[in-house]
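Example 4.3 (complexes with small molecules)
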Amino acid sequence: MKSLQNSFPEDFLWGGAIAANQAEGAYNEDGKGLDISDGFPHGIKHRYDPELVPGQFYPTHEAIDFYHHYKEDLALMQEMGFKVFRTSINWSRIFPNGDDEMPNEKGLQFYDDLFDEMLKRGMQPLVTLSHYETPTNLVKKYGSWRSRKLIGFFAKYCETVFRRYAGKVKYWLTFNEINNMRRMPGAAGGIFFKKGENHQQVVYQASHNMFVANALAIKLCHEIIPDAKIGCMLSLSNVYPHSCRPEDVFETMELRRRSLLYGDIMIRGYYPNYMADIWDKEDVHVEMEPGDEEMMRKYTADYLGFSYYRTTTHEYGTPFYGDTGGDQGTPNPYLKTTPWGWQIDPLGLRFTLNELYDRYQIPLFVVENGLGQIDEPDENGIVHDDYRIDYLRQHLMALRDALRDGVDIMGYTYWGPIDIVSAGTGEMKKRYGFVYVDRDNEGHGTMERRKKDSFAYYQNVIRTNGQEL
Ligand code: BGP
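Answer. The structure with 6-O-phosphono-beta-D-galactopyranose bound is encoded below.
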């Protein structure tokens, strides 16, 4: 029997997480091709421009210019004591069109330098292979993940980066929030519907192709970097039944399964029995090739990385929406809400960690959790973000409680340790950082970096390995 875990393990991976497209900028430098994130002027929940509109401001094109500031930014992360730093490789820096014969050396070199810098500063890179960054050309030419051709292109990209960074990167994630194929298939998989299509058919077929690609990536990773761990990544903010009415409870379970099915497949290795009913009701017929199911069964995730921001509730028969924070239903009267309508629920994190560990029995990694808020700098330009400290403290206490419950948790990477562009809305105003970046929604500002009060708080948490929360 596992003994009682009363505190954070010695090797707990403390750190922070960003995504290439929300931070790097330099959207067309050094041979980078366009990727889907380049075409959303107001975030991934809103309009997508398949062709860039002249004169339109696209916030991610410059973002916070991490591409040129990463040394200074990582120095700040080191000052907080980060043991791990999560970012993505932007696929379109490596294969600008997605289907190129040869990789782009300048793109490869950038990530070499970036990972060297992290390692020099005592941080393990945790790398997402695809964080809403499918090369645009693959969308135009092949309809993105609708086509099985994408499996081959993705495998080639994975093999290239595994070989190149084998000595540097030991923690990998395949597709960021792959279960967002259901809520935001444009961002998650480059899927934009055509008139008259059965959306569910397209989503599940594309998801299937991604599952095969996921299995192939795991296979390649283990062959090329035997000491690496590669996980899957899901958006798993939680949903409670709105009441104890059995219909509320049952339909909430069904709804939750629409997310968990992605974990069930990539962790257990096979489609769960309840899929047959979902596909039957939605008139979905997924084409598989011989060998697909065997691949999926054989190459499963080493760990589950997930994002957790909030919870919501579900009432029987009511429509359901979702955004970058997860599913969104009927507001919960017991919880406080951010200006973006996200309901803060630290106990929900403990609940979710327990639920997931009971279901999967593999290590969990909280790879995104944080508070997006409006920060008002004082007359000296300093942000006093007690609300962020409070959010963080409460979620870390919940995480410590979950460790005591017996959940196996590898680490915690706070989302957006430095202000970046919001994925959902494209705003800079929605800030998560411990470090303020002087840039606004319209792209004005000096790009100067300044520590907020939460910086010292998190630094002390890491210094004491979570003893002082
Ligand atoms: C997740 C994404 C991130 C991220 C975060 C916060 O869905 O993986 O890319 O940005 O949500 O969302 P937002 O930026 O919309 O506040």
